[in-house]
């Protein structure tokens, strides 16, 4: 029986105000106890508070629609009651997130002014700050935060050294929380190393035993693997049933409810990292024809419209953890079949996969949960057809379309690696993508999942207004969630924009096999990956 997903929407304003009220209360009183903390009387008041903070203020921003079956709450909190390592990981994440939010939300809302330490930061002042100024506002990690993280890793290493303990669910949960710690702290980590460890641990388990928890762990790491691979020049690392497991969405809550991206569309995006390598004539894994399929929607009436030699004893903390107006375009989401390979272009495998993925992206449409067709998604130049949708349906439609247009833009850049961003074929897709992003309010439940579309679309922005929209939205998501990967991604975009402005926009002869994406040069770190 499927687990329902609550439709309760936490807006940025209500979430932060609740946080403010809660923080003021716990400053003078003992922390409130959630349902999960009732058997935790042996824990210190501070630890109870940090676990409660995770329950009430981090879990809601990790899913599109929060509720009692939120997996970050349902699967993690009861494990934390019996796992000291997991509790310390949660405490590290909570203290980090409090620091990140304290540098933005609480100062902006005047909490520290009440405490006599800092003035209010008005909205207009915040929006005009640079990413470096925002980074400086976060301050440095506190000794408490560092202690929780180090303690968690010590317990984790102890469990991993014991083959029996390594199979405990709390180990996988600890890895997940430490991954979130790095997303929150910097948006940068040795993610491939972590994925290798997760795959090793999953391989030790009896996969004939069905487990919603293990299924959710695979969903989590596969999501980050896919989104990270597309911007870090690699294929996805999670193999086997990792994408097929999305068929378990009836037991996990539909993917769009957990992460804002519909499952069939996600499987197409999962192929983009491989496509990028093929475009550069770089080696890729052999495909399993039986698994490399992306399901098409049920036909409807036409509508208008390998394990890395990981040494567990040497794990370190970094190893476990980034309204638009425009020219009227096509009134329906269909495009030209795409460019044909130039005469001397021998990348047959690339073009074969390119055309297949492109066609699937053009044909994709969002199916409603009830099986009834949704209205066609409007383009930036067409009248809105979303009036008949509920706010939740409209939000899912627009965020899915923002992912789709970003994926189309990704394929367009692979087809034209040296064409200037100002070219009309890029700007039409930029305008469409930003249109759908702009239809998602900053207080929407799905707003926090826009980083990948913002990053892909933002890379090709040449108009100052378009860049301002991307910049402001990244900052708003940071304010809502306190996760610094949003600003890390924006920092990369700022470097890309500066470089694009300095480069000549003249037509350049295309050379098959060139590096297509401008962000690779702007990502100047080589000891890890940006997490989007």
TrEMBL record:
Lineage of the organism: Eukaryota, Fungi, Dikarya, Ascomycota, Pezizomycotina
Q: Which UniProt keywords apply?
A: Nucleus
Q: What is this protein called?
A: Fungal-specific transcription factor domain-containing protein
Please give the InterPro entries that the UniProt record associates with this protein.
Fun_TF
Domain of life, per lineage: Eukaryota
- Where is this protein found? Nucleus
- Main localization of the protein described in the UniProt heading: nucleus
- The answer, when asked if Nucleus is one of the entry's keywords, is yes
Source species of the chain? Lepidopterella palustris CBS 459.81
GO cellular component labels: nucleus
Annotated region Disordered: the residues are 320-341
**Entries under Pfam families matching the protein:** Fungal_trans_2
Keyword Nucleus among UniProt keywords: yes
């Amino acid at each position: 029986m499927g687990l329902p997903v609550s439709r309760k929407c936490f807006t940025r304003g209500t979430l932060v105000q609740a946080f403010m009220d809660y923080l003021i209360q716990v400053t003078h009183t003992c922390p409130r106890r959630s349902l999960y903390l009732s058997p935790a009387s042996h824990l210190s008041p501070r630890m109870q508070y940090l676990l409660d903070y995770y329950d009430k203020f981090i879990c809601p921003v990790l899913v599109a629609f929060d509720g009692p079956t939120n997996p970050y709450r349902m699967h993690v909190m009861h494990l934390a009651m019996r796992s000291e390592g997991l509790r310390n990981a949660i405490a590290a994440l909570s203290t980090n997130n409090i620091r990140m939010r304290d540098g933005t939300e609480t100062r902006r809302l005047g909490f520290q002014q009440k405490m006599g330490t800092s003035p209010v930061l008005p909205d207009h002042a915040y929006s005009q700050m640079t990413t470096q100024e925002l980074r400086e506002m976060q301050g440095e990690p506190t000794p408490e935060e560092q202690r929780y993280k180090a303690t968690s890793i010590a317990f984790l290493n102890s469990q991993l050294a014991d083959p029996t303990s390594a199979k405990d669910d709390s180990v996988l949960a600890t890895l997940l929380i430490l991954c979130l710690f790095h997303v929150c702290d910097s948006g940068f980590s040795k993610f491939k190393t972590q994925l290798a460890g997760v795959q090793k641990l999953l391989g030790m388990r009896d996969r004939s035993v069905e487990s919603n928890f293990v299924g959710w762990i695979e969903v989590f790491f596969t999501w980050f693997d896919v989104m990270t691979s597309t911007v870090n020049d690699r294929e996805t690392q999670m193999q086997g049933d990792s994408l097929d497991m999305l068929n378990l969405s009836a037991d996990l809550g539909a993917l769009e409810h957990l992460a804002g991206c519909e499952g069939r569309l996600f499987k197409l995006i999962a192929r983009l990292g491989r496509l990028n390598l093929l475009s550069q004539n770089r080696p890729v894994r052999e495909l399993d024809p039986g698994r490399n399929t992306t399901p098409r929607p049920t036909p409807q009436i036409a509508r208008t419209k390998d394990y890395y030699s990981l040494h567990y004893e040497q794990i370190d903390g970094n190893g476990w953890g980034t309204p638009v107006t425009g020219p009227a375009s096509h009134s329906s989401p269909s495009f030209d079949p795409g460019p044909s390979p130039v005469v001397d272009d021998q990348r047959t495998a690339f073009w074969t996969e390119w055309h297949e993925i492109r066609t699937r992206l053009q044909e994709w449409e969002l199916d409603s949960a009830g099986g009834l067709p949704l209205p066609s998604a409007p383009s930036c130049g067409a009248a809105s057809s979303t009036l008949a949708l509920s706010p939740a349906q409209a939000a899912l439609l627009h965020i899915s379309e923002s992912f789709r247009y970003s994926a189309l833009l990704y394929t367009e850049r692979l087809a034209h690696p040296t064409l200037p961003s100002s070219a009309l074929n890029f700007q039409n897709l930029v305008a469409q993508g930003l249109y759908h992003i702009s239809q998602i309010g900053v207080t929407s439940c799905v707003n926090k999942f826009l980083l990948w579309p913002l990053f892909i679309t933002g890379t090709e922005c040449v108009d100052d207004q378009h860049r301002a929209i991307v910049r402001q939205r990244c900052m708003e998501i940071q304010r809502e969630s306190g996760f610094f990967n949003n600003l890390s991604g924006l920092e990369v975009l700022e470097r890309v924009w500066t470089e694009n402005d300095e480069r000549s926009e003249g037509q350049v002869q295309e050379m098959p096999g060139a590096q297509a994406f401008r962000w690779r040069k702007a990502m100047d770190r080589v000891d890890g990956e940006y997490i989007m």
